Amino acid sequence: MHHTTFRPGRARLAVQWARRRAAACERRQPRRTGWLAPAAVVAAVLIAAACGGASPGSGGTGSMLKTTTINGATVLTNAKGFTIYSFALDTPAKSNCNGQCAQFWPPVKGSATGAGINGTFGTIKRSDGSTQATFDGRPLYTYVGDKSPGQATGNGLNAAGGIWHEIAISGTTGPASNAPPGGSGGYGY
């Protein structure tokens, strides 16, 4: 049987060593992680700046729109280059695309502006109480079928009981080249 003999001097040295080691770690730690707090603040500021202009359909309070040439026509797009549409059944004061329709055709939320774009921007109240952007009296939408900037796959579609049109600023637009014959959007809503 082995007995351990208690040696107060050895225990005291071990405690002193542990305390010195802990103190050394505490002194070094701020140097290692001291940059994290300022980096987190910088990251938060950059994220806030990037998210400051909300994109259409995102629920933000304002959208910056621009124009892009698609199939020979200059059309209204969101800041990311996605085509903006209007719905034939809408009126200047009312959106007739709600519920499931709005899942496929997200409304441009809040107000919208566009530098150098001739026309009148405005807003309407939707049936759910949210604000939707308008251009020349037409409520604005994007289309989930457009998978990348510069597409206008929703142009000329007959869906939700009416025809969808890209907002042309100049030039002549026609139905999208890949729109199905008969104009059915295939969503049955």
Can you put this structure into words, describing what you see?
The protein has about 190 residues and is α+β, with helices and mostly antiparallel strands. It folds into 2 domains: about 10-50; about 60-170, no CATH class. Helix content is about 25%, strand content about 20%. It has 3 helices and 11 strands; from the N terminus they run ααββββαβββββββ. The protein has helices at about 10-35, 35-50, 100-105; strands at about 60-65, 65-70, 75, 85, 110-115, 120-125, 130-135, 140, 160, 160-165, 170. Strands 2-3-11 form a 3-stranded antiparallel sheet, with no helix packed on it. It has a 3-stranded antiparallel sheet with strand order 4-10-9, with no helix packed on it. A hairpin with a 5-residue loop joins strand 6 (about 120-125) and strand 7. About 25% of the residues are buried. Mean pLDDT is about 75; it is low at about 40-60 and about 175-189.
